[in-house]
Amino acid sequence: MEVLKRRPAATRPVATPSYSVAQSAPHQILVCKACKHQGSSCEPGFALLKKLRAAIAAADLSGDFEVSGTACLAGCVPGHGGPCVVGWRATAKATWLFGDIDPAQPIDDLVEFSRLYAALEDGWMSGKDCPPRLCGNTLARIPAAIIVTREGAVQ
To answer: What is an example of a Pfam family matching this protein (predicted)?
Structure first.
């Protein structure tokens, strides 16, 4: 019988800022604010975060959405030109991730997507149902996690 040798575990640096983001509203919008390519904070991400918080409040969606900055969402491409990645998540709903979001452009499509997402029971929709400018910027649509144990399904 051949004995498999285990490679030494690679050490992983501690995440700074934290990758864990507490959620205080039923839905959460995450804006990438840390650039993995530059190893520093992302000024366009901070600009989009501020602009999106104001737009969600102006649209009277603050009770439904928390807009948070987070560490790198790993959806950008260096030198691609579109600096921001934005995600939507909620318990028992699909998670959506959009890239190439320019904070200098109007963000009405992001607010419209928020309205659509909040209205859907499971957060699932066809990409063609997304606001037009977001259709081509979809990086991922991830089904809600359902964990099954011996006792049954756990959400």
So the answer is: DUF1636
